[in-house]
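Subject: Sanity check before I submit

Could someone independently write out the structure tokens for this chain? I want to compare against mine line by line before I put it in a report. The sequence has 139 residues.
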Amino acid sequence: MSVASSPIGGRAIAAGARGIITLRNSGKRGRRIEVKMNRAREDLNLDVTVHRASATSEVPVWERARPQIKAVDMPKAKPWDEVLAARIIEEQPEETNYRPLAQRYAPTVGKSLETIRPKLRDALEYVDGRWTRRRSEPA
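---
Independent answer below. Compare away.
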């Protein structure tokens, strides 16, 4: 005599979940807890640290190890005034003075006219009908 559900995997469906938890210690990977479960799609590995609950106690305390965060150097963003100066040199607008030039680019930069004009004056000069970078004076 057979159970009606046995041909379709009734035993696998009705069986309780089982798990094995093991504390591993490896020279390459360090200490970790490894969990294997019969219904899991993959094993679970957690890096841990183990220490005594107190100096006189034999009770181990397992704590999840904090992964070390690796600092990644991000490229620094160029200051807005350098980007604007490069854009003006590339576009070569028809304005020949700093005030109309600042008025033209103020909305695109999101800065006030009083902020843009001194930066443009320090970075650019109008020479022979073209905007060019201002040469730094020797010290």
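---
OP: Matches mine. For the report I'm noting this point. The two ends are 103 Å apart (CA to CA).
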